[in-house]
Design goal:
The protein is built from 5 helices and 13 strands. It is of the alpha+beta class. The protein has a 13-stranded antiparallel β-sheet.
């Protein structure tokens, strides 16, 4: 029989306190473990917003190089890009000289290309959003980010844990029924510690893997950890690739809606 704690016996009181401590410690550990688990629960919506805003924020300005490798040629371009929220973006080619000034502008759901050699603005139809941008493996949709994960896809946390020696989250994105998007499914893997994307696999509507994007060369910019290199590999062309390497990227730059207009598009070249 376990002796009772007698208030008038100091030794007994000490022994009882020790026993209570031994009994309570596992219970407290379980409670604190549950609380910690609840506090660390993954907010999938916040992960989606983080991915969508990673390279653009409220406003952004970036310079980058794009290197395209195909079986027929290899070419490099220098680009400058600006964005305002999710509704406005502008990408302008700075080099090579023969392509200088070619620009792609997005305003809400409208996309235009400007061709300086013929001084003409051409509206890009919705059917061309999946088409190649300037002969690269990136689409028009990729460059101006017409579709967003937050607005056009439903997401689930399909994996959480250790993989290839690091702790990762895996998100699976499936387009909403009314979303006009290119892909039937996107699976993205990101690091848990800094929420930097590692890789993204893009599938068509039949579930066939079409391309893989890999992210590396991480850089801390303010509170963000940003992959400065994006390598796009088409599944059916293993010897081809397109690589975007960011030189610089700045957020909260001073650009307003008037910056993203047809009237000012030509002036950017």
């Amino acid at each position: 029989m376990t002796p009772r704690c007698l208030a008038f016996h100091p030794g007994a009181r000490a022994r009882c306190a020790a026993r209570r401590g031994r009994l309570l410690r596992p219970l407290l550990a379980m409670i604190f473990g549950l609380l910690a688990s609840h506090a660390a629960a993954v907010d999938v919506h916040e992960l989606i917003r983080h991915v969508d805003r990673l390279w653009r924020g409220d406003t952004s300005q970036a310079s980058m190089t794009m290197t395209v490798k195909t079986v027929r040629y290899q070419r490099a371009m220098t680009l400058e890009a600006w964005s305002l929220g999710k509704t406005r973006s502008l990408v302008v080619i700075r080099e090579p000289v023969k392509d200088r000034g070619i620009a792609t502008l997005k305003v809400d759901d409208n996309i235009w290309n400007y061709l300086p050699k013929i001084d003409r603005v051409i509206k890009v139809p919705a059917s061309m959003m999946s088409g190649s941008w300037m002969g690269s493996h990136f689409t028009n949709d990729d460059l101006v980010k017409e579709s967003t994960f937050e607005d056009d896809y439903d997401a689930t946390l399909s994996f959480e844990g250790a993989r290839a020696g690091r702790q990762v989250y895996e998100l699976t994105f499936v387009p909403r029924p009314d979303a006009a998007v290119v892909w039937g499914k996107v699976v993205m893997e990101m690091q848990q510690d800094n929420l930097a994307p590692i890789a993204a696999a893009y599938y068509d509507e039949a579930g066939t893997l079409m391309r893989t994007m890999r992210f590396d060369e991480l850089r801390q910019i303010g509170e963000r950890v940003i992959p400065m290199r994006l390598t796009l590999q088409p599944e059916d062309k293993p010897d081809e690739s397109t690589v975007i390497r960011y030189r610089d990227i700045a957020f909260d730059v001073s650009v307003g809606e008037s910056f993203f207009s047809l009237q000012s598009l030509k002036a950017r070249h």
